[in-house]
Amino acid sequence: MSKLTPAQQAARRRTFAIISHPDAGKTTLTEHLLLAGGSIRAAGQVRARGENRRTRSDWMKIERERGISVSSSVMTFEKDGLVFNLLDTPGHEDFSEDTYRTLTAADAAIMVLDAAKGIEPQTLKLFEVCRLRDIPIVTFINKMDREAQDPMELLDEIASKLQLDPAPLYWPAGSGGRFRGMLNLQTGAFQPYAKLVGGQAAEGEGHPEALPLAQADAHFQDGEKAELEEQAELIQGGYPAFERQSFLEGHMTPVLFGSALRHFGVDELLAAIGENAPPPKPLTAEKAGETETVEPGAREVTGFVFKVQANMDPNHRDRIAMLRLSSGEFKRGMKLKVQNTGRQLSVNAPITFFASDRELAEEAFAGDVIGIPNHGVLRVGDSLSESGLIRFAGLPNFAPEILQRVRVKDPLKAKHLKKALEGLAEEGVTQLFRPELGSDFIVGAVGQLQFEVMADRLANEYALECVFEPSPYAEARWVAGERADLEDFASKHKTAMARDIDDAPVFLSKSAWETGYIADRYPKVTFTKTRERM
Ligand code: G4P
Hints:
Layout lengths: L5 H6 L1 E8 L5 H11 L8 H12 L4 H6 L7 E6 L2 E6 L8 H9 L3 E7 L6 H12 L4 E6 L8 H12 L2 E4 L1 E4 L7 E4 L4 E4 L5 H6 L7 E2 L11 H15 L5 H5 L3 E6 L8 H11 L6 E5 L2 E5 L7 E9 L8 E9 L1 E3 L3 E4 L5 E3 L4 E3 L4 E3 L2 E3 L3 E6 L8 E3 L4 E3 L3 E3 L3 E7 L5 H13 L4 E5 L5 E5 L2 H15 L3 E5 L4 E6 L2 H10 L4 E3 L5 E5 L2 H10 L4 E3 L1 E3 L2
Parallel strand pairs: 1-3, 1-4, 4-5, 5-11, 6-11
Antiparallel strand pairs: 2-3, 7-8, 8-9, 9-10, 12-13, 12-24, 14-15, 14-23, 15-22, 16-21, 17-18, 17-23, 19-20, 25-34, 26-28, 26-29, 27-28, 27-31, 30-32, 30-33, 31-32
This protein binds guanosine-5',3'-tetraphosphate.
Guanosine-5',3'-tetraphosphate binds next to helix 2.
């Protein structure tokens, strides 16, 4: 094969994430997508890898105990000339900010629904995050091998709860014990379902070949085929046909049915992603004060850090910054500059993440994610490029929903605590506020679980026994305005003023009511719930 240009390389990338409510089957589907992509050979490897990692890492005890996945990573595989980058998102709702950031690095998402449950609370939350960014969504209705809700009701639920036009690409024949397979609504071919034992399914070869519906009588019992034909007609009359443009704009979702566990519908899902999900888009950036569009095929290597992960390898204290490339042809050993600090970095040991392993990345293109080991130089939201001049729109910091005071049991270790808290805040998982008065630290998080993870990490990674206690504060708001107005405001509310990790001023209020009251009294000061990291 002659060498592809960066533009051609970008065009064959599909970078996507899976969103779902816990237990809908995200892990199982991930595994079977990797099987479908030919990058693992037996089911069970993803989970086994996860467990392996967990036993090696102490702080992940919490994950194990609660059966949730807190950390996230990337899995890359190649199939039919396309490169798929699957970004794993944490499943627990307390980590929604983290999930949000991961989704900023995805160009599409698969929404997995449990066919018996439909849209669940966490599906809805994650969907809203996708909508904020207009990420196109492919819907996979999973667990058809079990008793399912009426598929038409499921489509109606998608339409009414998500305001998204569902366009079924396939239609299922029955479910549970009466699940017979699915009809390709575009070609009229019928894909029969065979009840399989795990091993066969893992090979992906266990289901009979697809065939024209007219020849598929042997796969149905009394009246079932007529019922499918009738439904297919209703569906084709009642729902709009799939339109790629509408999908790309975030208005329409193609719907597929299947069973991740039985490896049914998974190849079709991967094909639908390959065919319809978008390659990396041009991004708007700022270069030396001017707005610029960065094309994926542009010569200069650019990208942004969407996540910083500590402790992936517990033998090292390294942090790994996940860099999503936006353009260019990255080569190992290349020098990249951080836009906001001007620091230059030789990227000698970038990591790519294959299903079963991690390897050094020799090259990477727009859409790819590489892990850059570093000691705190790289932060979430950083823009990297060869010139150091490109700045992508920042990733937002969200105002935390819970604010707690943290205290180290041994007062002699207060200094250590400061460093440890800053380190954790730099990963972007929790936020740190330093009140202008007093010596306490206030830690903000989206959910209670994050404090538990944090206490565990402070103990295991930094040997600091800490307690989190309620703080008098309910909300944090970033404040901005003319210098004189800000100073006037801050001087009158000294006890409520704090600084975030980037030294930006923050007002800590005791209640939502107080926030509103104060904001009304100081119309020249703006109070915001999010702040874009520069
Ligand atoms: P999650 O990552 O979204 O939380 O879900 P996960 O894949 O862990 O799946 C949750 C449970 O649902 C698992 O069962 C899994 O085997 C099952 N499951 C996933 N996809 C399907 C499917 O297509 N059909 C059926 N029948 N079940 C499915 P578990 O009993 O909790 O775990 P395990 O002991 O089987 O691993």
